[in-house]
């Protein structure tokens, strides 16, 4: 379901039902003024569909278009329009692989009626996921995404990275790391703010539970990187003296002093 506001969030519309079945990984993409695509998947990402609106989301196509239906898993599908092409960016995990997802894209030259094979954006030993695509011009694109460090056997770390393209997605700059906190920075969202990128994300740096944080890439500096308490174990040592033994597992990017 969708709701929208045309007065900067002061009031909101009634809900609009887009799909009658269970849907996951829903994402909106504004292709041109008034034209919006909404993508969604089944639970495990093996079936990916999208619908189109040409009136700013007031009405939607009755029959969804199929983007992918296979044993491979695709999540977080987003669309970008460049001259004579429609680009589709997504998180991809091959069939039979439990981790090590990467970011790929497909190209359509006929307004989405057909699509090319997958093309690589970035896929490394870490887990690249949840791409957010910002279009500054027909040639300038930026992808903000989440990296899960799968090289650690236990207690994987999630951080936010970005890459840029100056030729419409053909080539990309080396990844630039934004967050370096030893705990979790994830579920990133991004929006264009003038010539900058405004992001929100969930982080455990303020409490040991997810809290929403925001930043402007290129302006905000990460200064608060506390140690991350992963586990705490408390054992009563003596009932009479009311003493407890407390042990913690703490991760930090700098030396921890007790």
Structure description:
With 258 residues, this protein is mainly β. The chain has strands at 24-32, 35-41, 47-53, 65-69, 73-82, 85-93, 102-108, 119-122, 127-135, 141-148, 158-165, 176-177, 185-193, 196-203, 211-217, 228-238, 243-251. The strands form five sheets. The chain has a four-stranded antiparallel sheet, with no helix packed on it. A four-stranded antiparallel sheet has the order 5-6-7-8, with no helix packed on it. Strand 14 and strand 15 form a beta hairpin. The protein is globular and about 75 Å long. The mean pLDDT is 86.
Feature tags:
four-stranded antiparallel β-sheet; mainly beta; 258 residues
Largest sheet: 4 strands, antiparallel
Helical proportion, percent range? under 10%
Query: Gap between N and C termini, in Å?
Result: 50 Å
Poorly predicted spans: none
Question: On the 0-100 scale, what is the average pLDDT?
Answer: 86
The ordered string of helix (H) and strand (E) elements is: EEEEEEEEEEEEEEEEE
Shape estimate: globular
Report the C-alpha radius of gyration, rounded. 21 Å
- Percent strand equals over 45%
Secondary structure class reads mainly beta
What is the tally of beta strands? 17
**Spatial order of the strands forming the largest sheet:** 1-2-3-4
| Count of helix runs | 0
